[in-house]
Amino acid sequence: MIAVVGLCLTGFATWKVYQRSNHLNSVSVSTLSTSIATAAQFEVREIRNKLRNLVRFYESSEAVTAEEFSHYSDLLMNGAATPSWKLVSLVSSAERIEMHPAAIWEFDRSGDRIVALERDLHLPVVHWTANGETREMLGYDIASEPDFERQLATALEFGIETEFLVRKHGADDTLGYYLFHPLRSGFGSGPIVGFAAVRVDLEALLIQAQEAFSDSIRFIGIKEHPSPVQSSSRQDFSLNPYKPLYVQQPFPLVDSSFQLSWATTSGFDRIYPMRVIASVAGPGAFLTIALAWVSALILRRRRVLSDLVEKRTAELAERLEFEHLISELSTDFVGLKSREVDHAVVDALRVIGEFSGVDRAYVFLFRDDSNSRIDNTHEWCGQGISPQIDSIQDVDLDREMPWFSKKVRAREVVNLPSMLELPNEALAERRIFESQDIRSLIVLPMANRDRLIGFLGFDSVRAPREWGKEEEILLRLVGQTFTNTFERKWAEETLIQTNKRLKETTVLAETMAKQAREATEAKSAFLANMSHEIRTPMNGVIGMTGLLLNTKLTEEQRHFAEIASSSGEALLHLIDEILDLSKIEAGKLDLEKVDFDLHRLIRNCGAPLKLQAEQKGLEFACDIDADVPDRLCGDPGRLRQVLVNFVGNAVKFTSKGTVSIQVSLQSSDSDRCCLRFDVVDSGIGIAKAKVGLLFEKFRQVDTSTTRRFGGTGLGLAISKQLVELMDGEVGVSSQLGEGSRFWFSVQLDRPASKGPAIKTAQSDSASVLSRSSTGAQRLSKRTSGPYKVLLAEDSKVNQMVVVALLNKSGIGVEVVENGKQALEALRKGRYDLVLLDIQMPEMDGLTVTKIVRDPDSDILQHDIPIIAVTAHAMQSNRTQCLAAGMNDFVSKPIKLQPLLDAIDRWL
What we know:
The protein is α+β, with helices and mostly antiparallel strands. The protein is built from 24 helices and 31 strands.
């Protein structure tokens, strides 16, 4: 009985011990699996934060190169748990047309790479980092996968920053996840331009977490579950106590729920041994000792697991704090104004210095004007640490710290846990560091592309310190942010200075332009006045010479008088050329728009030129193509001036042979036509090296031509500018000793009306009195008796010239010396016509004309013809006279025929 009772008690005690141990082990496995799952979820949050920081890194930079992305994403790699990081760009179908066809690709059903099919939106991979392979998937179109396309399209549709998960089954049907986060342009404030993505291998993540916690439990697998699952454990009851325990653990993630499967290993059995009591000897004491021993093991293991979880949680919290710090710093530097940069840099040094627990944080920048001299520009010091920024300025790094300079220029990290680790060649650096009480330091160069701008570093003053990977990563990331900020600040300051210089240059240019305009106006006014002053005595010279030639003279006297007359005409031609040039340069030369007969114009201007050619024994020909129209609209006077200049030069420089004019039609439409005029001669020709001088002002091909042929060098220059005003061009082809071909083209309008073309511009300038009733009376008087003309002229010489010229034509002249006398004469008597000078003492000619035309004045004849006789020869003076009420305009020096023509037009 005792044996039976003992066996029963032993069996019962054994069964109870086994049941209790199994329960405790199940609790331990469940606790352990929960800790691992919690750690994995921490890792998922950390990956999500890394992805957000990658987005901030992208959005805070103007452009992210493949090297920068690879460098940054290498820091984010977490073994097999995050096997790949990528940046994906948005490319519309319209944008893809501008790209190479094979730049975006996808896989076909057999797994081969093909050019991506046409879609409204493509999502090619721009940067890729995956297990060291950075180019394997570049250009792959994520939109070719339906799951990705639907999820990303949803993100784009709502247009907001969001994150989502895309389920992806691999080739071995393992469950993986992709996390996508939108990228925005304009430093995060613009539209979505792409996505940052990371692939998360959940199984690898769980295995990694399980290996970090314990080798007592192993991860079996994960599968999707349609609804949340509950944690459960099971064990097949058997007399064999060493069979593994199986645990199913829920794993919620975003909007999905998964079921994790775990199993204990032999390591678990070693920690939680399950021994069935082999004997019942000393059951009470042995059972008590056994239970106490098992309980102690469980409690100790729980403490170990708890410590491990706390340690891992602290590490995760520290990493999260680090990521949050970098994220905040990157965000703070986005969109900073230039004046805010220095304060922001010092504040950032304080934040990273306090976070890392260092004594001093600083930035050194190279000077703009030197590749060697450097300044301590920004510094933060911990409490009780003396600043060094004021004493470290304008340092010649290459000369004063050669070993340190070599390291920095090689873009190497200077990591000195102790000054004892400085090499022998760094004696200069040792003295400098010791003078600043530096016990250890770490320095990272700051560079942007190929330019080294300075360095960033930490000092430890109170005690030596080992610098870990965390400090290096922190300095590298902050240094890149500082570099981008400084580059942006310098670019903005350069732009401000450029704008300032541009504004100053613009003001200077406007001032110079104003001065140039004033100078041009002053020159024009000076030339106009000089023209008047020169033409007045020239009128006397040429007029008196002309009168002298009409008298009986000896052969020698006539020769002298002809030379004086020719010289006067040459001087007058020079004055006209200078005035034309002045008007063109001042932009005050206006072209007329009148209908004219082109064939008649060419015949009229060719007649005297033909006479000159025949006097030299030259053949003269004029050929007009049949398709050249007769009637055109333009400025016949200026066209005649250019043609006469070209033909006159050809006759001048040709001693034998021919001179010809050729006119052809270049192009034509219903409104305009382009004519080309060629003047061909067999004269002296021009060397090719001298052709470029032809159309320059005051320049001639050979200075000897001035002595031999005469001329000022202005004719061709004026002709070229007149042709350009008529929307044409000029050119020349010539060979020395064989002749020349000068040509020009002009654009002329077709006449608006189909009536007869006018013969001269003067006929179109007739005043309102040209067809008045008194015109018939004057015409009758012209045939029946002499005219009675009133001349108002203050120059005695000009009075004599005009009176002599008109008396020879049978016209009577009454002379007054100023405008007041002219009005007095018109109040008392009647005249057939008034010749009125413009510039006179007492009262000018314009004022006199306005009073005469005033119907309320006491003048006897308000409609009497008035012809301006003036030394002011510019077109603007003519327009001014006609606007005042004068009928016609004759410029000085006065010649008999132009004067009689003007009188005949009004009498």
